[in-house]
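Note on ligand handling. Small-molecule inputs were canonicalized before submission; formal charges were left as drawn, and no protonation-state enumeration was performed. Where a ligand contained multiple stereocentres, the stereochemistry in the source SMILES was retained. For zinc ion, this procedure yielded the string shown in the input block below.
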Amino acid sequence: MYLIFTILFLSGTLFIASPTLAAVKIEYLPPSPTQQIEHQWLTQQPINALFTSLSDDHFRFSQAVTLQYGSDDGPLYDPEHHQIQIPYEFISHTRSALSQLDDGADFDSQQAAVDSLLHTLLHEAGHAFIVDQDIAILGKEEDAADHFAAIIMLNYLPQGDIALLNAGNLFALESEQKPQFYDFGEYMIPIVIRK
Ligand SMILES: [Zn+2]
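Structure output:
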């Protein structure tokens, strides 16, 4: 079934646009004083517009999914509330970790942070879409969610290949340290793991 899911996904069969299907709702929990910077950064980036646009065009949900920033746990998808949860601390961790790679030349850590967050949102959206559409997954759901994110980025995001590699930098960094937010059984980008 996973193969069927992939084939349907690649062929675009799943993306039947309908004005009646629900959208993504964005919600910010009130940031603490130390979280203000991340809250402000999020509102200044194109990340939510990109994410909702990709969902509108390629993976519309039957039930509106909420993207909630400021949760205590996560990144995760909560099927009970059909909610993607992203802690502000994850944003600061991502920005801080990627800034270590900023050489002032070829690598843009700000863009890499946007790309990494977008990959995380799409990975969680993969979980949400599987539940929303009641898609049977016989293999590892984490792999399916990763493939979902990679396929969307590679096919529908301008310079998605570069964005995916940028996101991979975060995983490469995390693999060198004790992961704070990622269980590596869950989050893997094959092109990075295999290089
Ligand atoms: Zn996952």
